[in-house]
Amino acid sequence: MIQNVHHNSFTMKFNKNIDNMPIGENHPSYIIAEIGANFDGSLETAKEYCLAAKNAGANCAKFQSFKAEKIVSDEGFKLMDLKGVHGTWDQSIYDIFRKVEFPREWHKPISDYCNKIGIDFSTSPYDSEAIDLCVKLDVPFIKIGSGEITWLEAIEKIAATQKPIFLATGDATMSEIDDAIRTIEKTGNKNLVLMQCITNYPSKIESANINVIKTYESAYNVITGYSDHSPGDVVILGSIALGAKVIEKHVTLNNSNNGPDHPHSMDFNEFKIMINKIRKLESALGSSRKFVVEEESETVFVQRRGLYINKDLEGGSTIKETDIDVLRPALGIYPKYKDVVIGKTLKQDIKKNTPIYWDSLK
Questions:
Q1: How far apart are CA 194 and CA 7, in angstroms?
Q2: Pairwise CA distance, residues 258 & 131, whole Å
Q3: Class level of CATH domain 294-360
Q4: Strands in 170-290 per DSSP E
Q5: Considering 45, 259, 288, 359, which has the largest number of Cβ atoms within 10 A of its Cβ?
Q6: The pTM is what?
Q7: What is the CATH number of domain 12-66+102-285?
Q8: CB 15 within 8 A of CB 22
């Protein structure tokens, strides 16, 4: 298995040209706005998405880099009787992929634009030329989509760049994940984030299997994340609660727009609300160390009990059990010392309903 550095000392950095952002335990999660095919064939629309992602609070605007002839076989798909979302498309799989290609010549302008507005740019490469382009553009990480997890040759080339890898694991068995991680390991690249994913569009909330994040942490000792295609933010928030540090969600400016990704994407209003919830949840998660926080400094007395004398007693009196009440606030001696106090002698007179202090006892 890959011998990765554990969360506590993980030093992977992002936003290199803007602001250093470590990823791992005790750091905010890294949030990716997956634009995918939703740029609607327009460079200006692509820029609009990047700005909307920035304004919503995302850390990264991400695209996908493929050419239809290098990712799908038109003849192969014609041999299939597709029952899922791909079977609902009114054009061939090849034609749809061709239509939503993100042109290679747009990558540099989009990367520059993202740098200008202060958000990371990255893209998922689906061929060798696209991998080289990621290196040329110096993306902060390379996301490997779930469908590529068994293409070990491509994984090895990506890992050899020594860039951080976000590996999605939709459809994958643990054996297939093992193979991919071993392939990454042999390149010496230890900057891996393993992302749970369900590859259906949209995926069912009840299929999310968020708990596998804990399995990934224990089995591979890596930072984890979730690439989510389910409705709403339940799966994302659950992932954060279980320790996910990288989040990816498809976004759209309009769910009604034509295109394969728009219907199952989250609109930017929901996306911004989700990010605000994430940040609040991260604040609420706090530390694994139990301690009394500042706002409890008064209630630690107000809501607890102490030992009180329930009648006027003169100095020299011996305290009996019947002389003691256990009341709020917790001034003086704690109730657990009641048996020690019984039989002690008072140094001076004490009034009814007065707390008992150690220095008032002989």
A1: 13
A2: 28
A3: alpha beta
A4: 192-197, 223-228, 246-252, 266-267
A5: 259
A6: 0.88
A7: 3.20.20.70
A8: no
